[in-house]
């Protein structure tokens, strides 16, 4: 019997260099007036309330020096750019 390090199969890297695309889901309870104020602010900046919460949390973490260096960028809003993937419409 061989151990995984002795086998001929390549070993998987325990720390992949790319994060999974799935986003963490959390339940958040807010005072209704706080949510309404947040939703108005988000609308003013053309964001969803969820995107506004993430934006504010990231900014607070960065200001406190607690945002991990390998944190990916905020997901892009709106439609993907033209020619951005399979099945996309060809440029005019």
From TrEMBL:
<feature type="region of interest" description="Disordered">
    <location>
        <begin position="64"/>
        <end position="92"/>
    </location>
</feature>
<dbReference type="InterPro" id="IPR010985">
    <property type="entry name" value="Ribbon_hlx_hlx"/>
</dbReference>
<feature type="compositionally biased region" description="Low complexity">
    <location>
        <begin position="64"/>
        <end position="75"/>
    </location>
</feature>
<dbReference type="GO" id="GO:0006355">
    <property type="term" value="P:regulation of DNA-templated transcription"/>
</dbReference>
<feature type="compositionally biased region" description="Gly residues">
    <location>
        <begin position="81"/>
        <end position="92"/>
    </location>
</feature>
<feature type="region of interest" description="Disordered">
    <location>
        <begin position="1"/>
        <end position="27"/>
    </location>
</feature>
<protein>
    <recommendedName>
        <fullName>Toxin-antitoxin system HicB family antitoxin</fullName>
    </recommendedName>
</protein>
<dbReference type="InterPro" id="IPR013321">
    <property type="entry name" value="Arc_rbn_hlx_hlx"/>
</dbReference>
